[in-house]
């Protein structure tokens, strides 16, 4: 609430000031000096009263009026929400200029936004179906690298015989071993025998046993030391072979498969036995 102060003069003050200014100066009225008539009795029928009769007030004159110059103050409270103000006209010009400027900036950015929106729409329309198809294919095929396991390894005079098996854990992917790779048997970092992997097709969820005939290479003394050892011998078998993937009867591109086994042999004679092994298989382009 905002107070508003008004200073007003009363009508009697204004009239008195006007009368005083317009009428000539006159002498003051003489006082009533006549004595009060005596009253012989307090009550009476026909007698006069002992109380004096009230005298009439003197006539009012313009000169006897009291002139008051003090104003009257009135406080009026007005609510804020009822106070209105008209904004200056330059505010409308500034607002119009701002709207025009913002509209021009939006128009300049519109081509870039349209291009980006179209690009993302096209990208999403192409990428999303491909991702869904790849996910469905992966869930159906479940591709996995084959696993190798060595069952027997025997050392002869000039060669080594290796009996191993390979298993394919994939749901719908097969591996075609084209042959032409190489198998190497090493002892203490030196190659002691080499051979060629077999050629066959390994279906999904299939396991096959194969035999490797590896001919001795390098120094004959190293082979004799391995064959005549009665202690545990550590050997390393590495098989590198090209493979072609197959899914639902379709032959895909050719890749390389590497099988690496670290084998601990208890003996390499007639009673040869595999004590432990650690085989890893990796398929890569």
Could you describe the 3D structure shown?
There is one protein chain. The protein folds into three domains: 1-21 and 63-84, no CATH class; 86-141; 147-284, Immunoglobulin-like, CATH 2.60.40. It contains three helices and twelve strands. It starts with a strand and ends with a strand. Strands 3, 4, 5, 6, 7, 8, 9, 10, 11 and 12 form a ten-stranded antiparallel beta sheet that branches. The chain has a two-stranded antiparallel ribbon with strand order 1-2. It is elongated. It has helices at residues 11-22, 89-141, 220-228, and strands at residues 2-8, 72-78, 147-155, 159-167, 173-177, 182-187, 190-195, 200-202, 207-216, 233-247, 250-267, 273-284. The chain is of the alpha+beta class. The longest helix is centred in the middle third of the chain and has 53 residues, at 89-141.
How is the CATH topology of the largest domain named?
Immunoglobulin-like
When the domains are counted, the total is 3
- Class of the largest domain in CATH? Mainly Beta
Average pLDDT works out at 75
CATH architecture of the largest domain: Sandwich
Give the ordered list of helices and strands.
Answer: EHEHEEEEEEEHEEE
- Which outline best applies? elongated
Number of helices: 3
Strand content: 35-45%
Q: Low-confidence spans: pLDDT under 50, at least 5 residues?
A: 1-55, 60-68
- Give the proportion of residues in helices: 25-40%
Biggest sheet features: 10 strands, antiparallel
Q: Specify Rg, calculated over alpha carbons.
A: 63 Å
Structural class: alpha+beta
What is the β-strand count? 12
Distance between the termini: 86 Å
Organism: Vanilla planifolia (Vanilla)
Main location: membrane
Signal peptide: 1-17
Keywords: Membrane, Signal, Transmembrane, Transmembrane helix
């Amino acid at each position: 609430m905002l107070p508003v102060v008004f200073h007003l003069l009363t009508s009697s003050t204004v009239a008195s000031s006007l009368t005083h200014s317009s009428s000539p100066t006159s002498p003051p009225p003489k006082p009533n000096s006549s004595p009060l008539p005596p009253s012989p009795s307090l009550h009476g029928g026909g007698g006069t009263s002992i109380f004096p009769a009230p005298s009439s007030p003197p006539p009012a004159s313009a000169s006897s009026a009291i002139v008051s110059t003090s104003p009257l103050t009135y406080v009026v409270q007005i609510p804020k929400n009822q106070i209105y103000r008209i904004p200056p006209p330059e505010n409308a010009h500034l607002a119009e200029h701002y709207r025009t400027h913002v509209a021009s900036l939006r128009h300049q950015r519109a081509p870039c936004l349209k291009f980006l929106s179209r690009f993302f729409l096209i990208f999403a329309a192409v990428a999303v179906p491909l991702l869904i198809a790849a996910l469905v294919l992966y869930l159906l095929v479940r591709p996995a690298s084959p696993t190798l396991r060595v069952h027997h390894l025997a050392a002869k005079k000039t060669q080594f015989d290796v009996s191993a098996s390979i298993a394919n854990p994939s749901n719908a992917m097969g591996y075609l071993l084209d042959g032409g790779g190489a198998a190497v048997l090493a002892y203490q970092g030196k190659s002691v025998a080499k051979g060629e992997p077999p050629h066959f097709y390994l279906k999904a969820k299939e396991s096959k046993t194969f035999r490797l005939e590896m001919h001795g290479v390098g120094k004959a003394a190293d082979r004799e030391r391995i064959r005549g050892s009665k202690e545990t011998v550590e050997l390393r078998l590495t098989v590198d072979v090209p493979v072609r993937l197959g899914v639902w009867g379709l032959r895909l591109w050719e890749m390389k498969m590497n099988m690496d086994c670290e084998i601990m042999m208890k003996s390499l004679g007639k009673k040869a036995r595999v004590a432990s092994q650690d085989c890893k298989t990796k398929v890569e382009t």
